[in-house]
Write a structure and sequence with these properties.
This protein is α+β, with helices and mostly antiparallel strands and 253 residues long. The chain folds into 2 domains: 1-99, no CATH class; 109-253, no CATH class. 17% of the residues lie in helices and 54% in strands. The chain is built from 5 helices and 14 strands. It has helices spanning 3-17, 22-31, 73-76, 113-118, 227-233; strands at 36-43, 47-55, 61-71, 80-87, 90-98, 101-112, 129-143, 148-161, 170-181, 185-197, 203-211, 218-225, 242-244, 247-252. It is globular, with a radius of gyration of 21 Å.
Length: 253
């Protein structure tokens, strides 16, 4: 990189980094249709903190986690902006944004699941889900054409739902793997989601979901566990699952 361009990039990075941290609240609010917010933002994009919050009734903010970030100044010399992240005073990973790509590394995030799901528009996410989401893994990186690679694992602990009140379903691991499309190579990304369950779960879910551009989703999931629990779940999934003895099978195509 030419010295002049490097100097220009560093200068632009410093200007942006000194912008108030309240700008992040604006971005998060727009991305979540106002459901997720940053309460009490302090500092700047260079170094700051805030509280992750949900917009409840009458848009009152309900904080549920603390977040902090710090810009790595030397990374600007390599043509990227890189932030070290913390959640609830614990290291949570590293976010880097460059001219050609962005990436998340060293992810180690633990957050309550309900506020995250309530911010999503699909009705399936509003069934009163309970539990905690622990995200870890080496990370994922994408270019600005949404071509991605990497791996992240989301561990859903103490899972439950208001549809099955007073019942804890157990714990589940969701492993996300992104890589080149098997037919289109580097021109497109294929996403694989592998689901596994803890040994003592009341509900056992195992299987895989494959997603790729221009291809229909490929689903091969098996739901088992306590017979009474499967009997209660079966009517809820009758449009997409078939009964196979004491299991429910979801297979597409």
């Amino acid at each position: 990189m030419r010295p002049f361009l490097l100097l220009l990039l560093v200068a632009a990075g410093l200007v942006v980094a000194h912008a108030p941290s309240s700008l992040l609240d604006t971005v998060l609010a727009q991305a979540s249709d106002g459901h997720l917010r940053l309460a009490s933002p302090r500092g700047s994009l260079w170094r700051g903190s805030a509280e992750l919050a949900s917009a409840g009734e009458a848009r009152m903010l309900e904080p549920w986690a603390k977040a902090a970030w710090r810009l790595d100044l030397p990374a600007l010399l390599h043509g990227q902006a890189s932030w070290t992240l913390e959640v609830d005073d614990r290291p949570a990973g590293r976010l880097s944004v460059g001219i050609h790509r962005w990436k998340v590394e060293q992810a180690a995030i633990s957050l309550p699941l309900p506020p995250l799901l309530q911010a999503l528009p699909h009705p399936a996410f509003h069934f009163g889900w309970r539990g905690r989401a622990d995200v870890h893994g080496p990370g994922i990186e994408c270019d600005w054409q949404a071509r991605c690679s990497g791996r992240l694992v989301l561990a859903w602990r103490d899972a439950g739902t208001d549809i099955l009140p007073m019942q804890t379903l157990g714990g589940f691991d969701f492993e996300f793997d992104a890589g080149p499309h098997p037919n289109q190579g580097q021109a497109a990304t294929a996403l694989s989601l592998t689901v596994s369950s803890q040994a003592n779960n009341r509900l056992v879910i195992n299987g895989r979901i494959g997603l790729a551009p221009d291809d229909p989703p490929r689903v091969d999931l098996s739901l088992g566990g306590e017979a009474g629990l499967i009997d209660r779940i079966a009517p809820l999934l009758e449009q997409i699952a078939r009964r196979d003895g004491d299991r429910l099978l979801i297979r597409q195509p």
